[in-house]
Specification:
This protein is an all-alpha fold and about 270 residues long. It has two domains: about 160 residues, no CATH class; about 100 residues. The chain is built from nine helices and no strands. Helix 1 packs antiparallel against helix 3, helix 1 runs antiparallel to helix 7 and helix 8 packs across helix 9. The longest helix has about 60 residues. The chain starts with 6 loop residues before the first helix and ends with a helix. About 25% of the residues are buried. InterPro entries: ABC1_TM_sf (IPR036640).
Length: about 270
């Protein structure tokens, strides 16, 4: 038997995740600097409204994305709590729109990583703070979690037995409406599942190539500089072959990953 939820349970899950999302995002912003301090949040927030704002250096965008995710979840949670009879079916009809929004948020993390690399990719690994990595990784997974909550919890909310006191004709009408909504929901799920089954290779390839390109833009120049630095030692100083081997190995791994994705793209296409 499929798992179902009450409107109250769905709302509590949404509130809990919203609290977790905002907390981790604030934690990442506070660690986005030389030291962990909440003054960093004020610094990035004020910089966002200043004429000197630069998308390539300011991570406050992740807080805006967290607020968007929170708004979406709270609206959905409140809706299924207030009207658990018809809202889950309507939420199912909006699943494609919600999925597209979450895909954009997922794609934002590698896009922001590329923006960070635009200034000087050779020093990016040393320039990025711990908070930058926390924000990019969490934003990606948070969007996936929101999609799971929207598609696997909000759409499975069932009303309580508050209609038991109604007359027989009212009960029959309510049951007929539920059956119609369930049938419509099943048809939408079936169409969406068919579409996703046909198109899933292209989603995987698109995001894999985007991540591979991001890693290549960031790490290959960095490790290339490390190789040159390891070889071009000052006169009289021995070459550090352990560091050189490590850098060459990482570059080879990234190159192999790019080649594998290219071959996979040819096979699927």
């Amino acid at each position: 038997m499929a798992t179902t939820y009450t409107g109250r349970a769905a709302l509590l899950i949404a509130i809990f995740f919203c609290f977790l999302d905002i907390t981790i995002t604030i934690f990442g912003l506070a660690w986005d600097g030389k030291d962990f301090t909440f003054d960093n949040i004020g610094h990035w927030w004020n910089d966002f409204f200043s004429p000197n704002y630069d998308f390539r250096t300011n991570p406050i965008d992740f807080l805006i994305l967290a607020l968007i995710r929170t708004t979406v979840l709270l609206i959905g949670g409140l809706a299924v709590w207030c009207n658990p009879t018809t809202v889950p079916g309507r939420i199912q009809t909006l699943s494609n729109v919600h999925f597209a929004l979450m895909l954009l948020i997922v794609a934002f993390s590698p896009t922001k990583l590329l923006a960070f690399a635009e200034i000087d990719s050779t020093t990016l690994v040393n320039r990025l703070a711990v908070g930058d990595w926390i924000l990019m990784i969490w934003s990606l997974f948070a969007a996936l979690f929101v999609q799971v909550i929207w598609g696997s919890i909000f759409t499975k909310v069932k009303p309580t037995d508050c209609y038991l006191h109604l007359p027989d004709d009212s009960t029959s009408r309510v049951e007929a409406e539920r059956a119609a909504v369930a049938k419509e929901t099943f048809e939408l799920i079936q169409r969406l599942a068919t579409y996703m089954f046909k198109e899933w290779p292209f989603y995987i390839i698109a995001f894999s190539c985007l991540f591979a390109y991001s890693l290549a833009r960031v790490f290959i120049p960095y490790y290339m500089g490390e190789v040159v630095a390891a070889v071009m030692q000052p006169e009289g100083q021995a070459v550090d072959y352990s560091k050189l081997n490590k850098c060459v190995g990482v570059m080879a791994l990234l190159s192999f990953l790019g080649y594998a994705l290219y071959e996979l793209h040819k096979i699927i296409s």
